[in-house]
Amino acid sequence: MMYMGTPRDYEFYVATRVMMRSLRRLSADADRVVIASLDVPPLWVQALKDDGVKVVSVENLKNPYEKQENFNMRFKLTLNKLYAWSLISYERVVMLDSDNIFLQNTDELFQCGQFCAVFINPCIFHTGLFVLQPSMDVFKNMLHELAVGRENPDGADQGFLASYFPDLLDQPMFHPPANGTKLQGTYRLPLGYQMDASYYYLKLRWSIPCGPNSVITFPSAPWFKPWYWWSWPVLPLGLSWHEQRRENLGYSSEIPVVLIQAVLYIGVIAVTRLARPSLSKMCYNRRMEKNTMFLLSLLRVVAAWSILAAYTIPFFIIPRTVHPLLGWPLYLLGSFSLSSIVINVFLLHPMTVLTTWFGFIGALLVMAFPWYLNGVVRALAVFAYAFCCAPLIWASLVKTMSSLHVLIERDAFRLGEPNQNAEFTKLY
Question: What is the pLDDT of the chain when averaged over all its residues?
């Protein structure tokens, strides 16, 4: 399902294409269909069609719950998922969110009954993957329930469907018949069809006894979805999604931007290495009555914000869906190049500014270490590293501020008496 209106529309479009292509590689014996709102860009629709995907264009369903106190606007159009019941040309539909990673073929799901879903939460089933039998009667009844304001705890598809199928928890577990026949009724799906990524992070391996370990889902914070370049090694499974993208879709749309940024950063580093720092420190002032302490405080604030900008600007301009093995080196290159500007402008010692940079590299190595016994040991290792690294970063910040104080007292920055014979007084 695709719709527009969130800050992450493009990322979900990419995720949808990756998932659809991965299903093709797994030889799924079914049509691949995307329910897309009418405002999805035509180029995106055409790209999906070129991938062999059927696109069903629909009008956005009005969400009657958007005025609820706990309503999250990013779920405003998730009720479009109800259109799955209108696909009456199919006997069964497996409805999917785009943040699923398929580990193996799951065609047996088409043998399930009229409605089947997985309980990730002990009491509430998850709507990231569910099986349904299309029916216009059910679809019209759902629209009626929306119109009359059926109870919906979260105002999204999750709450509505949980309210519409309140007895699913009491239904039997789905086990596909060996003869391939389709079951009737409603069933609970084994957890292996919606393995919450958080289960992996605890043991750093899959150990789901209920059903085949077939599908991974990421119902986490939206900024930690697996397609973001910073998702790995922060979250170990982030690389799994990117490997699927590399195998199925590639990164041709992001590579030109990555190359342009890399060339710019290398150019900045070259210029700052060749530039003479003394030339970057010259300024002019007609009046010399400024307070030295005020200048020192101002320099400290400007320097602190400049260092912060050097480490944050590259993060936000890197294409979000690029591979982590491209994103992190580009981030480190960008932060190094901008830090070199700060070093030149304020005549700071390189190590005081780059301590944080080296700290980032160390943190990435600690998180990416592949031989932790389990997630608890990994978390403790990251905490221990942060505990040891924090004093060094603080000391580098203190030394940076001290360097600015010394800089003010140098002849190049000393506020001398006005020169009566000069039109300007120079500060170096």
Answer: 88
Predicted local distance difference test score (pLDDT) of residue 281: 44
In a shared domain, residues 167 and 79: yes
Dmax of the chain from CA atoms? 102
Rounded Cα distance between 229 and 280, Å, is 35
The number of folded domains in the chain is 2
Q: Which of 219, 245, 275 is the endpoint of a domain? A: 219
Average pLDDT over residues 197-216: 84
Same domain, 175 and 269: no
- In terms of domains, do 172 and 112 share one? yes
Degrees to nearest 5, angle at CA 204 with 198 and 206: 75
Q: Which of the four pLDDT bands, split at 50, 70 and 90, describes residue 413? A: very low
Instruction: Point out which residues pair with 205 in neighbouring strands.
Output: none
Q: Tell me what the mean pLDDT of segment 141-165 comes to.
A: 93
> What is d(CA 211, CA 117) in angstroms, rounded to the nearest whole number?
13
Instruction: Tell me which residue range forms the domain holding 406.
Output: 254-415
State pLDDT tens for residues 40-63.
999 999 999 999 999 999 999 999
Distance CA 131, CA 215 (A): 14
* Residues 6 or more apart whose Cβ sits within 8 Å of residue 204: 236, 372, 373, 374, 375, 378
The larger pLDDT score, comparing residue 117 to residue 404, is at: 117
Query: Could you tell me if 258 and 213 lie in one domain?
Result: no
CA atoms within 13 A on the CB side of 381: 18
195: left (phi over 0), alpha (psi -120 to 50) or beta: beta
